[in-house]
């Protein structure tokens, strides 16, 4: 039964299509409303405060006091860890992928809002990974501190010396310590793990090659826990993204030189890194896309305000009164609503058929949303004129994040390649289908006395 209309008479549901609204539980509806209130009252107005606190001397790589305060408040209000799937039992808020996606778009309106709710990457994916693949002892040691908001985690997979689109080429090495087989040694280079300068970061989940001679390339790699600051782990530098350092979490380039960790830090077992990675990525890709849609909606709203600003009247007309800009705004609106349908469909498919069955829908979202959102934000910058590419607006940071997501959790080229390969596999059945058309066409030609002609 559809929820009562009055329950959905709220701005949080204004863009959610009717078919998705019908699938929202009463609990989800109330949660989405609470998230909307949280972001609109605690996060959007506090954006300048967040930036000001980061700019204070010695605070650049520390979690801003504002965020710490909000994290504690979110715990008390039952808004912490909203992403947790039902497999977490009592710890889970019980939201479906579709329901959490609706929350996620609202959360995405402010880049750091997810952190206040402990729903930020890479911790969300890491927590799901640990819950799914770790032993009970490992969960107590590594998962619970992140789940309770006591520390942050990082994920380290990408390397500068290997093609990032082919993870089987990862060559950072894990070997047994020749002096004590209860310990492992890590040697190699990594990119994109969170900055070691981040004060509240506790550990890295690292994927490296442990069995290079294994004939099965999917069994050569192992995933391990590496505590931040382990001797032999060195952060070479912060990696900026389009010139932004993305403090306080940021990204780093790391060098591992005989970095020694206990063998007990292996997750699931040696050679099972790809099994872990695939179990981690599906939901995270959807989360990225929905947050990105929320951010892009904000960019669009800013542009509507610009288009109707009475102070901005080139040639005596509002910016929004020019035909070209009216069409621009219409096109952006249509694109945003189309993208939302694609991601909600992916989330619903995952709920109904599972992550594996939803692979195509997930890939479709991951390919289309970052690319199109970057283009929409680019148009928003254009309509803001010169100010649109400066720090006077948040548009350049929004665009940078959208551009980055085309690479996060796998480059879009790799996803397109997978979708294309899957489509080519449908050709034999289509050939049979079209052969049947030809056969029936010949039969109809004979019946009606029409000369048969071949067609492609």
UniProtKB/TrEMBL annotation:
Protein name: Uncharacterized protein
The species this protein was found in: Vermiconidia calcicola
Superkingdom of the organism of origin: Eukaryota
């Amino acid at each position: 039964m559809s929820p009562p209309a009055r329950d959905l008479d709220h701005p949080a549901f204004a863009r959610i299509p009717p078919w998705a609204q019908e699938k929202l539980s009463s609990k989800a509806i109330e949660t989405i409303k609470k998230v909307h209130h949280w972001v609109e009252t605690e996060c959007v107005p506090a954006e300048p405060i967040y930036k000001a606190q980061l700019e204070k001397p010695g605070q650049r790589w520390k979690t801003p006091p504002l965020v710490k305060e909000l994290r504690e408040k979110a715990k008390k209000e039952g808004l912490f860890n909203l992403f947790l799937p039902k497999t977490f039992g009592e710890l889970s808020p019980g939201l479906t992928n579709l329901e959490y996606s609706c929350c996620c778009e609202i959360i995405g309106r402010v880049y750091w809002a997810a952190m206040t709710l402990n729903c930020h990457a890479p911790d969300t994916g890491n927590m799901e990974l640990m819950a799914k693949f770790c032993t009970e002892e490992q969960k107590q040691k590594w998962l619970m501190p992140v789940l309770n908001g006591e520390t942050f985690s990082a994920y380290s997979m990408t390397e500068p010396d290997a093609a990032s689109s082919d993870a089987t080429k990862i060559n950072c090495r894990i070997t047994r310590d020749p002096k004590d087989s209860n310990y492992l040694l890590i040697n190699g280079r990594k990119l994109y793990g969170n900055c070691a300068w981040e004060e509240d970061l506790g550990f890295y989940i690292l994927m490296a090659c442990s069995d290079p001679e294994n004939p099965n390339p999917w069994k050569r790699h192992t995933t391990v826990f590496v505590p931040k600051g382990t001797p032999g782990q060195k952060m070479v530098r912060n990696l900026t993204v389009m010139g932004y350092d993305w403090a306080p979490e940021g990204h780093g380039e790391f060098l591992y030189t005989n970095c020694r960790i206990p063998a007990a830090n292996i997750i699931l077992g040696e050679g099972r890194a790809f099994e872990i990675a695939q179990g981690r990525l599906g939901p995270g890709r959807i989360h990225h896309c929905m947050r990105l849609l929320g951010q892009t909606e904000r960019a669009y709203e800013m542009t509507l305000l610009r288009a109707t600003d009475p102070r901005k009247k080139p040639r005596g007309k509002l910016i929004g009164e020019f035909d070209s800009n009216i069409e621009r705004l219409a096109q952006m609106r249509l694109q945003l609503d189309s993208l939302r349908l694609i991601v909600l469909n992916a989330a619903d498919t995952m709920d109904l058929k599972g992550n594996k069955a939803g692979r195509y829908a997930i890939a479709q979202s991951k390919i289309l949303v970052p690319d199109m959102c970057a283009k929409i934000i680019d148009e928003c910058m254009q309509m803001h004129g010169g100010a649109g590419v400066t720090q006077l607006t948040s548009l350049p940071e929004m665009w940078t994040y959208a551009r980055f997501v085309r690479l996060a959790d796998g480059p879009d080229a790799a996803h397109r390649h997978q979708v294309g390969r899957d489509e080519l596999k449908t050709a034999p059945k289509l050939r049979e289908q079209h052969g049947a058309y030809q056969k029936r066409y010949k039969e109809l030609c004979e019946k009606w006395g029409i000369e048969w002609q071949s067609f492609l």
